[in-house]
């Protein structure tokens, strides 16, 4: 798979099994509708994603880059790109997630090439739309329309969405410069190795020495890489990852909370409970009950 994405969490579209797999997340600070605990871990999805920031500033991080997007601006995140989104202070944004085939019209359509020459290009991972470029403004106008359509759904909802998504893509495709294919950066490859190690060993006792050894770099360089690539420390990222795994198990299994804590790498139940409550605002038990309530 491209970019080693099999080594990271696949964030599946909540509407994937419906006849209209279009998902809009309305995110205010750390609260999301539909509900999403918002663990700060790298993930990817097979869908395309546009984010429009209504208030505040977000930061979108890939393995190679960090891009800040402020109110009135937007960003495109290509399919299969390993990334995470975080806020800088108070923030409100809408995230629009949908499959690429929405833009192809029908099987065998000549429109498909205008989709694939972006979605298949690994060098075009993200693209920010500022308020200083005319065609960027055209993009944000359509995203604002999608925000309003979501707030005021009509009988024509699905068609209104599809028309605007196609218009959005057409503007971007006409104006964007398609970068040539190139090799992955050394930084990207090293971070992939480190995050892959966490994916495979998070249930074990992991040290900074273990992480640095996995990428054949020094401990200081490992810490520096986390700061530059993810704006966090190895320990904080590992804790976030363990909590995200615990949240999935709480939602999908009936395993006792103590067993779940141990299975994701927490050796003390009290420490697990404290970290989980600090992140989600709920105890593990209350979180499980909330997630399993229709």
Fold and architecture overview:
The chain is built from 10 helices and 11 strands. The chain has helices at residues 112-119, 134-151, 157-175, 186-201, 208-214, 219-230, 234-252, 257-263, 269-280, 284-291, and strands at residues 9-10, 23-28, 31-33, 43-44, 48-55, 57-62, 66-70, 74-77, 83-87, 92-98, 126-129. It is an alpha+beta fold. β2 (23-28) and β3 (31-33) form a beta hairpin. A 6-stranded antiparallel beta sheet has the order 3-2-10-5-8-11, with helices on one face. A 3-stranded antiparallel beta sheet has the order 7-6-9, with no helix packed on it. It has a two-stranded parallel ribbon with strand order 1-4. The radius of gyration is 20 Å and the shape is globular. The chain folds into 2 domains: 2-175, Jelly Rolls (Sandwich), CATH 2.60.120.280; 186-291, Arc Repressor Mutant, subunit A (Orthogonal Bundle). The chain is 43% helix and 18% strand.
User: What is the fourth-level CATH superfamily of the largest domain?
Assistant: Regulatory protein AraC
Report low-confidence residues grouped into runs of 5 or more.
1-9
- Which structural class should the secondary elements be placed in? alpha+beta
Tally the helices: what do you get?
10
Any guess at the CATH architecture of the largest domain?
Sandwich
What is the terminal separation in angstroms? Answer: 35 Å
* Pattern of helices and strands: EEEEEEEEEEHEHHHHHHHHH
Q: What does the largest sheet look like?
A: 6 strands, antiparallel
- Mean pLDDT, to the nearest integer, reads 88
Q: What is the C-alpha radius of gyration, as a whole number of Å?
A: 20 Å
Please report the first level of CATH classification, the CATH class of the largest domain.
Answer: Mainly Beta
The helix content is 40-55%
Which fold name corresponds to the CATH topology of the largest domain? Jelly Rolls
């Amino acid at each position: 798979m491209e970019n080693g994405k099999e080594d990271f969490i696949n964030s599946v579209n909540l509407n994937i099994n419906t006849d209209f797999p279009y998902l809009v997340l309305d995110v205010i600070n750390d609260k999301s509708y539909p509900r999403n605990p918002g663990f700060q871990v790298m993930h990817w999805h097979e869908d395309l994603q546009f984010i429009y920031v209504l208030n505040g500033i977000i930061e979108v991080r890939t393995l190679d880059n960090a891009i800040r997007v402020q109110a009135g601006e937007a960003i495109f995140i290509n399919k299969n790109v390993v990334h995470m989104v975080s806020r800088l202070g108070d923030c409100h944004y809408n995230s629009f997630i949908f499959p690429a085939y929405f833009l192809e019209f029908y099987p065998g359509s000549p429109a498909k090439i205008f989709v694939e020459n972006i979605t298949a290009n690994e060098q075009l991972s993200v693209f920010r739309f500022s308020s200083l470029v005319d065609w960027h403004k055209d993009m944000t106008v359509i995203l604002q329309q999608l925000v309003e359509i979501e707030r005021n759904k009509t009988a024509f909802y699905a068609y209104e969405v599809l028309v605007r998504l196609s218009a959005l893509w057409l503007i971007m495709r006409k104006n964007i410069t398609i970068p040539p294919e190139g090799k992955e950066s050394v930084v990207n490859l090293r971070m992939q190795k480190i995050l892959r190690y966490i994916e495979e060993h998070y249930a074990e006792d992991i040290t900074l020495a273990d992480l640095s050894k996995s990428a054949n770099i020094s401990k200081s360089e490992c810490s520096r890489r986390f700061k530059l690539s993810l704006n966090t420390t190895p320990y904080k990222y590992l804790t976030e990852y363990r909590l995200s795994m615990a949240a999935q198990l709480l939602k999908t299994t009936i395993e006792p909370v103590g067993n779940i804590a141990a299975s994701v790498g927490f050796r003390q139940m009290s420490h697990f409970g404290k970290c989980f409550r600090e992140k989600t605002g709920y105890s593990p038990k209350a979180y499980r009950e909330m997630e399993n309530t229709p």
